[in-house]
Amino acid sequence: MEATKVDVICINQMELAARWRISHRTLERWRWTGEGPKLLKVGGRVVYRLTDIEEYEEMMIRSSTSGVRDAHQFSA
């Protein structure tokens, strides 16, 4: 049985900052404080898997700014 190769799409800090329209410094600060999406450190470079970014974006979805999460978010 032959293993199936799965392509993993990764983007760097600058690409993620552009995607979210935030400063790359914000991403750096989040790394120090343990916030933000999961990351990989490969050869001294920090990259983010697209699947982890999308998972983080889903976790951040809110229906209001009150801080109360939607019911569907508690099932995760």
What would the keywords be for this entry?
alpha+beta, 76 residues, 14% strand, 37% helix, disordered C terminus, 3 strands, single chain, three-stranded antiparallel β-sheet
Account of the 3D structure:
- With 76 residues, the protein is an alpha+beta fold.
- It has one domain (10-65).
- It is 37% helix and 14% strand.
- It contains 3 helices and 3 strands, in the order βααββα.
- A 3-stranded antiparallel sheet has the order 1-3-2.
- Helix 1 (13-20) packs across helix 2.
- The chain is globular.
- Residues 71-76 have low confidence and may be disordered.
User: What shape does the CA trace take?
Assistant: globular
Give the low-confidence spans: 71-76
Q: Note the main sheet.
A: 3 strands, antiparallel
Helix content: 25-40%
Write down the Rg. 15 Å
- Describe the strand arrangement of the main beta sheet, using strand numbers: 1-3-2
- How much beta, percentage-wise? 5-15%
Judged by helices, strands and strand pairing, the structural class is alpha+beta
- Counting DSSP H or I runs of 4 or more residues, the number of helices is 3
Estimate the mean pLDDT confidence. 86
Q: SSE string, helix = H, strand = E?
A: EHHEEH
